[in-house]
Amino acid sequence: MRSIGHFIGGKEVKGNSGRTADVFEPMTGEVQAKVALASKAEVRAAVENARAAQPEWAATNPQRRARVMMKFLELVQRDYDKLAELLAREHGKTVPDAKGDIQRGLEVAEFACGIPHLMKGEYTEGAGPGIDIYSMRQPLGVVAGITPFNFPAMIPMWKFAPAIACGNAFILKPSERDPGVPMKLAELMMEAGLPAGILNVVNGDKEAVDAILDDPDIKAIGFVGSTPIAQYIYERAAQTGKRCQCFGGAKNHAIIMPDADMDQTVDALIGAGYGSAGERCMAVSVAVPVGKTTADRLMEKLIPRVESLKIGTSVDPSADYGPLVTREAVEKVKNYIDIGIKEGATLAVDGRGFKMQGYEKGFYLGGSLFDNVTKDMRIYKEEIFGPVLSVVRAHDYGEALALPSEHDYGNGVAIFTRDGDAARDFAAKVNVGMVGINVPIPVPIAYYTFGGWKKSGFGDLNQHGPDSIRFYTKTKTVTSRWPSGVKEGAEFSIPLMK
């Protein structure tokens, strides 16, 4: 059985806390590895390595830092298939889905290769008599990322690629459920030429998280996970003066207007609602048809599609989705389905009884579909994070617009329509951070920023794009005047740029 330690000072090291966690293979339900859970001392060792290495890395010119990132891209492409299979076997998502996970992370690493341009400051000549003003961006020092199980390649790269390109050293605390790929990414960064100590990986649980939060040498933290933990990390980081960006849960709506192409809409809902077994923060979990006729047409086409979903192993290329990440995740989703029935929603498709022949111990769950869900139900208010889609029928456009706008979460939303005026009005008015128009999962491309509103995001800067450079750097502004032509004598009033 594999033993997974930590990656500190440029190499994998064994854990010495005496604590470990099981890493399951979701498609079989068997334990495939033991991962070490870091102690506070082990986190501190990673930070000390990072602090020692960071000044020289920050002094390395940005084009050389970009070359390391370019080489990293090349190496990940070389090992693409191996990484995707490892990811699939630890997480449960299918191999094609795992490749998408890796690809969306690589796109942010590609963006970070532009760091020589992205870190340029501003300059004003002659701001006053003989006075020039310029600004420069400088790295923060040692920064950290705490990333979730559902995207074990993408989100770590979203965090460490721009941070390292900016000249910081990085401490990554990935999910202990699927730590294999983050460890491999650290190895590939070293092979690409990154100095030892600039990227460290500490596997662990709350003890490691709290050690990161309390360490005085860590200047900034990025987090993705559930909303309660996001809020906890944001508040605790603020108490210790750290810069922090935290992204939490979601309840993403898809508004279906009467003029929508229903076949296209159903295709979108099936992929966005059930892909990766619904274990995505951008999964569509609420469909909102506008008007009874639209709702009836939607359900007529949606029910047989959900019933015919093909659930398979993570390595089955024909599977629509694979198992969930743990048995506890399966039980949690089943419990939400029970709650929905008790609350009075109509369970149009019940996936609780699904069994995978030959893999009875795996963490499988069929697709479920609720109709006649109302906004006071828990299955509407709370994030289920599984293959469950809820249909909330809206009488008109105004009611449909209000549902995502008034929900506690505000990560993503989509509208399906042929009407440009309706789409434009919706995009302008909806109170949600990311909007799709006939696009079910509106994850922006890497050179735009990703981030939700309300309880889906804490902090004023988003992930990737220009915000990532702002988050991982501090701006210094210099006002300079040389002696030539300077009037002698003290000035007691505030200097003016005359």
Give the count of structural domains: 2
Strand count = 23
Characterize the biggest β-sheet: 7 strands, mixed
Shape: globular
What's the number of helices?
A: 16
* Estimated radius of gyration: 25 Å
Determine the CATH topology of the largest domain: Aldehyde Dehydrogenase, Chain A, domain 1
In the predicted model, the low-confidence regions spanning at least 5 consecutive residues are: none
* Name of the CATH superfamily of the largest domain: Aldehyde Dehydrogenase, Chain A, domain 1
Q: Please give the share of residues in helix.
A: 25-40%
CATH architecture level-2 label of the largest domain: 3-Layer(aba) Sandwich
- Secondary-structure-based class equals alpha/beta
Q: Strand order, biggest sheet? A: 15-16-17-14-13-19-20
Enzyme class: oxidoreductase
Protein name: methylmalonate-semialdehyde dehydrogenase (CoA acylating)
Keywords: NAD, Oxidoreductase
Organism: Bradyrhizobium iriomotense
Briefly say what this structure is:
With 498 residues, the chain is of the alpha/beta class. The protein has helices at 40-59, 62-78, 80-91, 95-112, 115-118, 154-165, 180-191, 206-214, 227-239, 262-274, 292-307, 327-343, 378-381, 397-406, 420-429, 466-471, and strands spanning 2-4, 6-8, 11-13, 20-25, 30-36, 123-128, 131-139, 142-146, 169-173, 199-201, 218-224, 243-247, 252-256, 284-289, 346-349, 368-371, 388-391, 409-410, 412-416, 434-437, 453-454, 457-458, 473-481.
Describe this structure as you would to a colleague:
It comes from Bradyrhizobium iriomotense. This is methylmalonate-semialdehyde dehydrogenase (CoA acylating). It is an enzyme of class 1 (oxidoreductase). It holds the Pfam family Aldedh. Residues 14-478 form the Aldehyde dehydrogenase domain. The chain is α/β, with parallel strands linked by helices. It has two domains: 2-248 and 456-478, Aldehyde Dehydrogenase, Chain A, domain 1, CATH 3.40.605.10; 252-437, Aldehyde Dehydrogenase, Chain A, domain 2 (3-Layer(aba) Sandwich). Helix content is 39%, strand content 22%. The protein is built from 16 helices and 23 strands. The strands form six sheets. The protein has a seven-stranded mixed beta sheet with strand order 15-16-17-14-13-19-20, with helices on both faces. A six-stranded mixed beta sheet has the order 10-9-8-11-12-22, with helices on both faces. A three-stranded mixed beta sheet has the order 1-5-4, with helices on one face. A hairpin with a 2-residue loop joins β2 and β3 (11-13). It starts with a strand and ends in a 17-residue tail after the last strand. The relative contact order is 0.14. The model has no long low-confidence stretch (mean pLDDT 95).
